[in-house]
Amino acid sequence: MSKIVCRVTPVNGYDIPGLERWLEKQAAKGLIFAMTVGVFTLFERKAPVSLRFHLEPAPDKPDRTDPELNALYEEAGWQYLGLFRSSFAVFSTENREAQAHTDPEVWSYALKRFFRRKLLGGVGLAILNFVLLSFFWSSRFDLFELRYFWAEALAAGFVPWALAALGLALADLAYLHGLFVLWRLHRRTKRDLPMTPAPGSHLSGVLAALSAIPLFLVAVELIFLFATHGYFPYDLADSNFVTLTEIEGEDFRLTGDRMHNMDYISHGDTPLTPENWFFQQWGTSRVFSEGGSLDDIPHLEINITRYLLPAAAEHRVWEWESWGRGGYRDLESACDLDQIRFCEDEYLDGTRTYYLILRRGGAVLRVEYQGEQDITRFLSRFAEMIDSL
């Protein structure tokens, strides 16, 4: 069995009486304080012992230690165990009569230092709130329409934004509660009142620990994005994607505009967002060189999203249908697809646009095609595309 045991610190880092009582309870279980790492406290597993603990404000030095002070406490029967978050020196003793007294001037100076550190931490936390929430925010999801278009929001990156918002909200609450505990400690020492555990002191420790879970997942997402950009395009030639030339015929001329005539497949995938693909091709037209409307130019657009849960893909089908003017109908089941939805839109100038939505499991594919061909003839090819992803 390992001699080192890790525990989440459930008490606020400035609630000295609460921390001392908690450390005493751990010692009675055979866990002796060793050090702290963030919201965690590390203990050495030993034989259970009844100990008293005293937390002394750590000196304002680079290593936060004072050998002379430690020696004075050892002469009084205390043993120096280490630092608690660089804020306090931790002393323990088995002698119930041993005395420990913190100099008022030391307390006054330490409290001012703690307040400065806490306020600077608040500025850093505010910056982190702004940076993370701005980075993950997308105009593609609307919080007021989230209950209707939640599958689209998932594809737009709602999960990392929501996790960042949750983690930061918990961290903000823990910070505010910690500020309250520090203010209470300052008030009681200024009035020469005995130190007692702060009400709800365990709250900030729990909030800080809970905030670490979503923020860790967000950190993984950020590392992945900065390392790979979450974008993995690949060549069209080896993709097995249906092309506009395949639908219209080899003699069909495509535009020379590379943005509207992709020779690659746009592909995105991150740990917290559904995998997605996008591809489009347009026919040649003077519009691309001289400007004008693209509405009457033959084109093909393909969007594919693969969700972890089939229910999300099924809801995405409904969302895509909601974009248009209605008129979607089921086609006869084919190619082992779970859903086949088809819609035809005809405009006043006689131009027709066809929409085809296919779903198999958690993968959903949407095709937008404008032209004169029967797009339903390519159902098997679109099904092959899904299989090849």
Task: Give a structural overview.
The chain is of the alpha+beta class and 389 residues long. The chain contains ten helices and 14 strands. The strands form three sheets. The chain has an eight-stranded antiparallel sheet with strand order 7-8-9-10-14-13-12-11, sandwiched between helices. A three-stranded antiparallel sheet has the order 1-3-2. Strands 4-6-5 form a three-stranded antiparallel sheet, with helices on both faces. A hairpin with a 5-residue loop joins β12 and β13 (352-360). The radius of gyration is 32 Å and the shape is elongated.
Sequence-ordered SSE layout with sheet pairings:
Layout: E1 4-8, H1 16-28, E2 31-37, E3 40-45, E4 52-57, H2 67-75, E5 79-84, E6 88-93, H3 104-136, H4 150-155, H5 158-190, H6 201-228, E7 234-235, H7 244-248, E8 264-270, E9 273-282, H8 287-290, E10 299-306, H9 310-323, E11 329-330, E12 339-346, E13 352-360, E14 363-370, H10 379-388
Antiparallel strand pairs: 1-3, 2-3, 4-6, 5-6, 7-8, 8-9, 9-10, 10-14, 11-12, 12-13, 13-14
How much of the sequence is in beta strands? 15-25%
Order of adjacent strands in the largest pleated sheet:
7-8-9-10-14-13-12-11
Query: How many helices in DSSP terms?
Result: 10
**Rough shape?**
elongated
- Write down how many β-strands occur, each being a DSSP E stretch of 2 or more residues: 14
Q: Quaternary state, please?
A: single chain
Mean pLDDT: 88
Helical fraction: 25-40%
Largest sheet: 8 strands, antiparallel
Cα distance, first to last residue? 46 Å
Structural class: alpha+beta
Output the helix-strand order: EHEEEHEEHHHHEHEEHEHEEEEH
Weakly predicted, low-confidence segments: none
Rg computed from alpha carbons, rounded to a whole number of angstroms: 32 Å
